[in-house]
Amino acid sequence: MKPIGVIILNWNGAELMRRFLPSVIENTNAEIADVIVVDNGSTDNSREVLAKEFPEVKTLFFSKNYGYAEGYNRSIKELGYEYSVLLNSDVETPENWLTPMYEYVCQNKNVVACQPKILSVNHRENFEYAGASGGFIDKHGYPYCRGRLFDTVEEDHGQYDSVEEIFWATGACLFVRTDVYLAVGGLDKDFFAHMEEIDLCWRIRTAGYSIVVVPESRIFHLGGGSLPASNPRKTYLNFRNNLFLLYKNMPDKEGARLLFIRRLYDTLAFFMFVAKFDFKNAKAVLKAHNDYRKQHKRYASVRPDKSIMGDYPCFKENIILSYYLKGKKHYSDL
Predict the structure, then answer these.
(1) Using CB atoms within 10 A of its CB, is residue 244 exposed (0-12), middle (13-18) or buried (19+)?
(2) Does pTM surpass 0.70?
(3) C-alpha distances in angstroms, 176 versus 21, 24, 171, 191, 210?
(4) How high is the pLDDT of residue 224?
């Protein structure tokens, strides 16, 4: 059995497969990896497209849509590769995109997860929003990237081409050791969407392992997802899941302090939406907090006894103040 399974979760994505799958097949080193498309209960013609146009690709079919997190959890466990790559269906892979990550993880045993440099398909000189050149999280729980702070996405001039330890790796292309992925519980299906990979990486960190970005590997990501940035559903998921993320991965005392501060910031965000007469997004923030209050106790039994936040320099940054008050728009400015 080959050591790596490159797993693409598909749901009604026949046209995305036609556009992006050929590059993955052509540029994935067949000596070390299989490309597997896992169909998550599609109702379009995805299965026919796979059979007729991509007969060389391995497949796994689910009878229903398990969603992103549970779809990957089930497929990774069933396929059983030593290493699994969670690859979005809207990713174009150039030559030699996979081997540098594999070699780095093999040579550094405590590194169990990594990501490549993520560039935009449509603006190929730019980093892509979802992951750029590695993810971090600030002292108040706000995620940011090497190459992307909030909505400011940098051009790639090779400024972040060094291998660097990161706090989280993007779910657009996540290379992970399968036994560790399963041991920490995989992706949390209750997040539904947004920040589930940050939660997974935080648990990997808490278990004592390292995560890096290997920019010698690179991919091009379409991104954008199914929800635009201003969509109230996206606002709701981002605000709720960020609260889940902090409560779940912080011990009680430190978590209570941090969550109190985050509520203050979220209150400010609520009033900013109101000031813009954006009442739908303001309502989404309220709903996120109400649902967090009702649902967060499901994680009480899995909270850690000790925080790891102090061990990582990224946590010392206040990204809100740096970006909005100090005008630091690039990662290199921090």
Answers:
(1) buried
(2) yes
(3) 21, 18, 11, 20, 11
(4) 65
